[in-house]
Specification:
Ferredoxin Thioredoxin Reductase, Translation Initiation Factor IF3, 2 domains, 5-stranded mixed β-sheet, two-stranded antiparallel sheet, globular
Length: about 210
Amino acid sequence: MGLSETFSMMKEFFSSYIAYYAEIKKQDKWIRQFAEKKGFRINPHWMFYTNLKIWITESQQAFGKRYCPCFEPSGSEKLNGKLLCPCQFVETEVEERGTCHCVLFGRGDLTEEDFKQAENRLMKEYRVALNFSDGVLDTRGMVKDKLRNLPIPDSLHQVKRALGLVDKHLTVVVESEAEASNLKKLASFRNLSYQHQENGDGGFAVTLTKP
């Protein structure tokens, strides 16, 4: 990740923190209640934890439901129900590797260093090199999560990164109609213009334009 992308991410983080401050406090309340009920420890690192609450808040505002920060809604309503945070995979993942996928919750005995190692694992998954060239981002071909069968990183996470790399237009190639629909909701939420058309190979090409 280059310096310009890092600066863009930090700017967006603090802007979102100020804009969503009241909502972040609401997210904090249910997260702490759930962790206490399950005997989990919440991620102890303020910036990482706050960023997760920002993503949950944005998901709730863009899609009407608080989906897991790691995954965008799928084309399956049954799976989408399982993705609502706290997702139905959290206990399995905490048992298997100590934390849930997004590192929001962990075992009660985890140390700060344990959480840091889990964060590094997550960042390695999501900070892959983007397939991005001349204003075109191809989001396809990512590794699938074994429990959800969803790509890591998904198209939304890739687009959020790529938007910081363009001045005006971003064309995004996605595999499914569900992903195109999610980008349309993201565009509405972020006040971006949206256009899409089918590709010859069965995918969709979405163009997002900044105001």
